[in-house]
Amino acid sequence: MTASELDQFTAWIEELIRARGYDIDSPRGGGKSRLADEAGVHRAAITRLLQGQSMPDLETTRRLAHVLRVPVRDMLIRSGRLSEEDLPLPALGGDSEAAAPHRRLTLEEAAAGLGVPRDQWDMFIRVAGQFLPADTDSARGAAEYGPAAAVKGAGKG
Q: How far lies 31's CA from each of 23, 27, 43, 57, 82, in Å?
């Protein structure tokens, strides 16, 4: 990564952090500390990132993406670590015969992709799972382990 790419990423992430309501300009550092706490990372990692000193590691990137409600894919591409070719989006529609076999999105993936706060995933999974068609995995889960297991297993496959 060049210095220019790091500067571009730093400017983008700084703007994103401000847009999400974190006061990172305060001399007391309250916004940086709050962001670090909510993401479960060290405040120093936030400071280094905002000063353009270093890129966050993969786990820090993942945690920041979740808190900032942006796909990890976008963070990795914007950071210059990976390209769009490295992380292609699945084709929507088109030639289904040439496409890879269909894999249904799990409820956990949907929660993450929609930005549902981690502490509300269980509720999201219970509620969203009620609207999914019964498939063999969820039907088996309901028969063997009760309806909660069916809901938790719904959407996998």
A: 4, 10, 10, 21, 28
85 SS3 class? coil
Please provide the average confidence, as pLDDT, over all residues in the chain.
Answer: 77
Write out pLDDT tens, residues 69-83.
Answer: 988 888 888 888 888
Q: For 110, phi and psi rounded to 5 degrees?
A: -65, -45
What burial letters (b/e) apply to 99-132, b meaning 16+ CB within 10 Å? eeeeeeebbeebbbeeebeeeeeeebbeebbeee
Q: What is the pLDDT of residues 16-26, one digit of tens each?
A: 999 999 998 88
Does this model's pTM top 0.85? My answer is: no
User: Is pLDDT above 70 for 97?
Assistant: no
How far is it, in rounded angstroms, from Cα 27 to Cα 21? 16
Which residues does 33 contact at the CB level (< 8 Å), separation at least 6?
43
